[in-house]
Write a structure and sequence with these properties.
The protein is 44% helix and 18% strand. The chain is built from 13 helices and eight strands. The chain has helices at 2-5, 12-17, 37-43, 45-55, 67-75, 84-106, 113-131, 142-151, 212-229, 242-248, 259-269, 285-296, 310-320, and strands at 156-161, 171-180, 184-193, 199-210, 234-239, 273-278, 300-302, 325-330.
Length: 333
Amino acid sequence: MWKVWKAKLPLDDFLKKVAYCMPSKCWCCVQPDEESLQHLFFRSETARTTWKYFLSRVGIAMEGLTMHQAITKCWTANVCLRLKPIMQVLPSCVVWELWKRRNSMKYGDTVTTSRVIYQVSSNLQALVKVRKPGMDMVPHKWQDLLAMMENFTPKLKVTKVMWEFPSAGWLKVNTDGASRGDPGRSSIGFCIRNENGNIVKSVGKEIEETTDIVAEVKAVVEALRFCRFQQYSHVWLQNDSLLLKRIMDGIWKPPWIISEQVEEMMQLMNGANYTVTHIHMEGNKLADHLANYALDHGEIECQQFWHLDAQGRRLVNEDKMLCPSLRVKVDRR
């Protein structure tokens, strides 16, 4: 598509520009015309028929348009959100199939206009199947495909997320980092609770301007330092960063920007019994609140329930009562 947009394909009109003149013939036409980019991809009978077949069904008129204008109208078409990726890829599919047809006919094969339209429709159908795997029986015909996409109602997957109590003799540490701007103003928050769900320590404080992942790992390091200083031996560490969890499990290598913090984090966990798990952000609300409180109101540090602000106390009570949060997303299956 880039070569078509910039007119960089080795067609006859391009070769003339670089002073290489020769007889010119369009291989796609019954009555050959001079081969040029505009003729091959937009003005020839096959190109016009193909473009009109797809554009007319979404309300785009071909009359008076150049190829670049037709492509731009596809990219900016006023269609429903689900159809935008399809319309944005449509020009590439059309151009590719026209280019394949030109090369096939140049070397003796016969490719009809109907075949070009069929192949473009097949490519669009395959794209929808990839992007919407939950769709059953994706139609091949362009008009039916448009109607299905416009009327499609996705299936929703609802997951219940709850904060869980640690086992007897264990402490649970929830951590979170916040960055407004990524990079921008940043803060960390962590809370430590016992087997009854009571606050042992909660901290929220602003750090230097940085990115979200750096704030996440610094929150974990700060919490581990406190646990090491207090000589806590049985700690359940939980955060909502799947990236950080997989780094701590050794599945992924840490980015260079947090490599030092990850190394310190691993050293702080030596010599004690640590369990590391991931939780969705709906189950990590208190740590998230502490991090954002530090940005909005200033540093907070307390060891008792009543020292928290009203929202923090509400979140603690909701966790102790095992109030579930519902995580709703589109089912990709």
